[in-house]
Design brief:
Strand order of the largest sheet: 1-2-3-4-5-7-6
Number of helices: 5
Radius of gyration: 17 Å
Distance between the termini: 24 Å
Number of strands: 7
CATH superfamily of one domain: Gcn5-related N-acetyltransferase (GNAT)
Structural class: alpha+beta
Strand content: 25-35%
Shape: globular
CATH class of one domain: Alpha Beta
Helix content: 25-40%
Order of helices and strands: HEHHEEEHEHEE
Largest sheet: 7 strands, mixed
CATH topology of one domain: Aminopeptidase
Length: about 170
């Protein structure tokens, strides 16, 4: 089980700070996805990407083919109280692990789920004897590029609307 914990302070007057701490301490679990998760994971992915829909005019069908992904690749889901709130799709390719999709439901951000899913990608990559992760993100979502860079990824190129990135382990 993965969960986010941190030390709380004694400042009881700052109620917004207390609410934030309570939210940050929510327990969540990660497990391998199964075909029964298809609809819930698809809905979670669609919700996660919905925040970009107005800005990114050529966003692909991000949840399309999830059942095939679950059957053929490494797919992990994050749950809170048996509700799927995040997921990651990892595909073994020639000499590297491709992070094909990662998503956290927008109502469940700030709980460390995204960071936990990204750490799962590192763990799977190493377990497979690989030393390189790759991903692509959309050029119109620069905050993703900044986040991945912060997590140790480097930009390797751009093609069309894609920003190509990799992380060496």
């Amino acid at each position: 089980m993965a969960h986010s914990r941190f030390k709380t302070g004694n400042n009881k007057r700052n109620t917004s700070h207390v609410r934030y701490k309570i939210k940050r301490m929510a327990n969540w679990q990660m497990r391998r996805a199964n075909l029964g998760d298809t609809d819930a994971l698809s809905s979670c992915i669609d919700a996660a990407y919905s925040i970009y829909a107005a800005r990114v005019t050529d966003l692909p069908a991000v949840s399309e083919g999830i059942a095939d992904d679950i059957a053929d690749h490494r797919v992990w889901v994050a749950e809170i109280d048996r509700e799927i709130v995040g997921g990651i799709v990892l595909m073994v390719e020639d000499g590297h692990l491709l992070l094909a999709n990662v998503a956290v439901h927008p109502k469940r951000t700030g709980l460390g789920i995204g960071r936990g899913l990204m750490a799962r990608a590192d763990t799977d990559c190493r377990a497979l004897g690989l030393r390189e992760l790759r991903l692509s993100t959309h050029v119109q979502i620069p905050e993703n590029v900044a986040l991945y860079t912060h997590l140790g990824w480097e930009e390797t190129g751009r093609t069309g609307n894609k920003v190509l990135m990799r992380k060496l382990l």
